[in-house]
TrEMBL record:
InterPro entries: CheY-like_superfamily, HD/PDEase_dom, PAS, PAS-like_dom_sf, PAS_fold, PDE8-like_REC_N, PDEase, PDEase_catalytic_dom. The keyword Phosphoprotein applies. This is Phosphodiesterase. Pathway: Purine metabolism; 3',5'-cyclic AMP degradation; AMP from 3',5'-cyclic AMP: step 1/1. Residues 197-268 form the PAS domain. It comes from the Eukaryota. It comes from Takifugu rubripes. Zn(2+) 1 binds at residues 551, 587-588, 705.
């Protein structure tokens, strides 16, 4: 009946460190949050270096210990023993209640499993109550193994009243026992470890020198720590349960300060600033206050956490405990933890002391030997704040807030007038990843997937209708005549599509690549280029109304047009021009006619492959190189040097990925701030910078990709009809398959095409082409854009939903 550890004798503890709980304490919105993760391994402490976050670390190392209490060995006890061994848990077996209690008092097990099937051996409920009577058992999970009922199911309340957390209906199957242990480990046991870690956090709150106050969403005080009691002169019992408004206020605050604070925190935003509080004795104390809303269940604010530092007359934080701490609360060993005072400046927008904030962590940032550029910028701003007047310091504080965001060049995706067309368009084009249905469930089902993993055409098996002449000299006169003005912006791509029987990309590609000397640059025969163009075109889906080879040819045409502009020619090298032409040709290859959001929602293989991030753009770039390099007959890169190939490949991939709409504003804003604005000062140095050449190429292909609103009106109308039809088809399929509808306004029965075009021009086109025109000088495009916008606006003003007005 003695406890027998399931561990070989003579081994060191670290060898058997088979389960480790790492509780990472991180400051989320100013509130200390605990998250726990189970990790398996024999050297779990080696994981510690991976936890170097910008915040504190809370590491708890433990061995998950299980106590089995079975009066005699049977298949059920053997099943749990085997399961513990398989799960690498430390296991002890006890045969009597006495030995079980003795073992529990010694080992403090995390999980206790008691045999409740046979009352003649011992009273399982009495044993459970005895274990619960031990003061450190509150975080132990206790499970009762019960008989399988042979008639009506019995109530579990007696077990719950005895202190059991869970019952297990006898099942000696080893995998059933193992699965039960896994569920317990990741369920009740993990929750208990979170609570155990939470106890340590509450100890930290109790020992903290800052006053801490926690209120409910209704501003009812739920907790204050001893430091708060000492600063304010109240006892916990006098405050807990009271509403904040019941606590006396100081008259020294500005009349509208409370309204400002409440307005800020009710929006879920943190507020920090100077606030005067009234102590119990009636004195006012100046405090630096930080209030953080805590988002809880349902995504709503459930608590507010306030940290309060008392300030002296010079607005210095009084962090010496002797200044406000009673000696019976803390021992003397804590009194020198934080000495002296520290300048404090606030990020608040409404308080009269809003410029009084300083960051104690800046000393560590200044001492860093390897600084990121953003760190240098923050250091410069902080240094400038030291000697700046209050309004300037406040403005610099707001600058720092902006700089600490992750998407510096991407605007908030709100719209000025909350237009549903714009909202749907922006949401559909600028979001990747899973989208919710009406409830909380996510769609992720392979039966709905659009499977577009590479199944590309082989150059030896090009469909007969895509075969082209051997060279430019063999092009039929009718097609050659159609392409005579291909260097003009007003070139009619749809005439070429009809003349070539939808082989637009190959014919136009041969003409444009010849004009730019691409074969000479790549040192490849024209026959190889022709084969490459054919196989690329064969991998565009002619069934798509918009994303087909005609669109690729249109983007190639626009790219070639932009490359001929003087400012662009000054910026780019020959390798950049070749990369741009190739990127334009392949930028939508194998496009399925559905958006990234659709693929992610449908759980397509591509979305899984590319982790719901830039799914199509990644696929286009990857497939283009697979197609090109798998057969020498179409490998246009075969004869260039390795270094040149790598540079060319990198440039092509970068440009194709730049067509992803989620990065639209980032690319445009970087272009404006890095190139257009500095151009007024130094043209040559700006244009020849390698970093800026990348920005120019990204902007070039982006403008080429969505240049339809800048084409002549008839072409613009045709493109609008084609993209609308593709979006209509997607909405139809989403409804048919029960997927989330990404762009609800693109319902063929209700959609207003003029409104959708107006929204697209307003939100995506105008600013981008204004910037591109300022750089490349494109007055004819801007005139077309203006004319087309007026056309769509006139249709919308007449409440028309169609592409054209009705015949007179």
């Amino acid at each position: 009946s003695m406890c027998v550890p399931n561990i070989a004798p003579g081994h060191c503890g670290d060898v058997f460190m088979t389960k480790t709980l790492i509780s990472k304490s991180s400051r989320m919105r100013g509130m200390v949050c605990i998250s726990c993760t189970f990790l398996t391994g024999h050297s779990s402490l080696l994981l510690a270096p991976k936890l170097r976050l910008a915040t504190i670390h809370f590491l708890i190392v433990f061995f998950l210990q299980v106590l089995l209490v079975f009066a005699k060995e049977d298949s059920q006890s053997n099943g749990f023993c085997w399961a513990c061994e398989k799960a690498n848990f430390r296991c002890n077996m006890a045969r009597t209640p006495e030995s079980a209690l003795e073992c529990f008092l010694e080992k403090h097990h995390d999980l206790v499993i008691i045999d409740h099937r046979h009352s003649r051996h011992f009273d399982a409920e009495a044993l459970c109550r005895s274990i619960r009577a031990v003061n450190f058992s509150e975080n132990t999970v206790i499970v009762a193994v019960v008989k399988r009922p042979d008639r009506e199911e019995a109530s579990v309340m007696p077990l719950i009243n005895a202190g059991f957390n869970r019952r297990y209906v006898e099942n000696a199957n080893m995998m059933a026992c193992y699965n039960e242990l896994l569920q317990l480990e990741h369920g009740e046991v993990q929750s208990q470890f979170k609570l155990r870690a939470g106890n340590a956090i509450f100890t930290a709150l109790e020992q903290s020198q800052e006053g801490i106050e926690i209120t409910s969403e209704d501003q009812i005080i739920q907790y204050v720590n001893p430091a708060y009691e000492s600063i304010m002169g109240y006892q916990q019992g006098e405050l807990i349960g009271k509403e904040i408004i019941e606590v006396p206020k100081s008259e020294k605050n500005k009349p509208d300060l409370l309204e400002t604070i409440n307005s800020c925190i009710r929006k879920g935003k943190e507020w920090q600033g100077i606030y005067y509080a009234k102590k119990k004795n009636g004195d006012s104390v100046q405090q630096n206050v930080k209030i953080t809303p805590v988002i809880g269940q349902g995504g709503k604010i459930r608590h507010y956490v306030s940290l309060k530092w008392p300030l002296n007359d010079n607005n210095k934080v009084m962090l010496d405990p002797s200044a406000f701490w009673s000696p019976d609360i803390h021992s003397s060993k804590h009194k020198d933890r934080r000495k002296g005072s520290l300048d404090v400046r606030s990020t608040s927008r409404g308080s009269d002391g809003s410029s009084q904030r300083r960051h104690s962590s800046m000393a560590r940032i200044h001492s860093m030997t390897i600084e990121a550029p953003i760190t240098k910028v923050i250091n410069i701003i902080n240094a400038a704040q030291e000697s700046s007047p209050m309004p300037v310091a406040e403005a610099l504080d707001r600058v720092l807030e902006i700089l600490r965001t992750t998407e510096l060049y991407s605007p908030q995706l709100g719209t000025k007038d909350e237009d549903p067309h714009t909202n749907d368009l922006v949401g559909g084009l600028m979001t990747d990843g899973l989208r919710r249905l009406s409830g909380n469930e996510y769609i992720f089902s392979t039966k709905h997937a659009v499977d577009v993993l590479p199944t590309f055409q082989n150059p030896h098996h090009i469909p007969s209708h895509l075969i082209t002449p051997l060279s430019l000299n063999d092009i039929p006169p009718r097609i050659a005549q159609t392409m005579e003005n291909e260097d003009s912006w007003d070139f009619d791509i749809f005439n070429l599509e009809a003349a070539t029987m939808k082989r637009t990309l190959t014919y136009l590609g041969l003409k444009i690549f010849s004009r730019f000397g691409v074969c000479e640059f790549l040192n490849c025969p024209e026959a190889t280029l022709r084969s490459w163009l054919q196989v690329i075109e064969a991998n565009y889906h002619s069934s798509n109304s918009y994303h087909n080879s005609c669109h690729a040819a249109d983007v190639l045409h626009a790219t070639a047009y932009f490359l001929c502009k003087e400012r662009v020619k000054q910026s780019l090298d020959p390798i950049d021009e070749v990369a741009a032409l190739i990127a334009a040709t392949v930028h939508d290859v194998d496009h399925p006619g559905r958006t990234n959001s659709f693929l992610c929602n449908a759980g397509s293989e591509l979305a899984v492959l590319y982790n719901d991030t830039a799914v199509l753009e990644s696929h286009h770039a990857a497939l283009a190189f697979q197609i090109t390099t798998r057969d020498d007959k179409c490998n246009i890169f075969k004869n260039i040097e390795r270094n040149e190939y790598r540079s060319l490949r990198q440039a092509i991939i970068d440009m194709v990925l730049a067509t992803e709409m989620t990065k639209h504003f980032e690319h445009v804003n970087k272009f404006v701030n890095s190139i257009n604005k500095p151009l007024a000062e130094s043209v040559k140095s700006i244009l020849t910078s390698p970093e800026n050449r990348i920005l120019v190429k990204r902007m070039l292909i982006k403008c080429a990709d969505i240049s339809n609103p800048c084409r002549p009106l008839e072409l613009c109308i045709e493109w609008a009809g084609r993209i609308s039809e593709e979006y209509f088809a997607q909405t139809d399929e989403e409804k048919r398959q029960g997927l989330p509808v990404v762009m609800p306004v693109f319902d063929r029965n209700t959609c207003s095409i003029p409104k959708s075009q107006i929204s697209f021009i307003d939100y995506f086109i105008t600013d981008m082409f204004d910037a591109w025109d300022a750089f490349a000088d494109l007055p004819n495009l801007m005139q077309h854009l203006d004319n087309n916008f007026k056309y769509w606006k006139s249709l919308d003003d007449r409440k028309l939903h169609s592409l054209r007005p009705p015949p007179e």
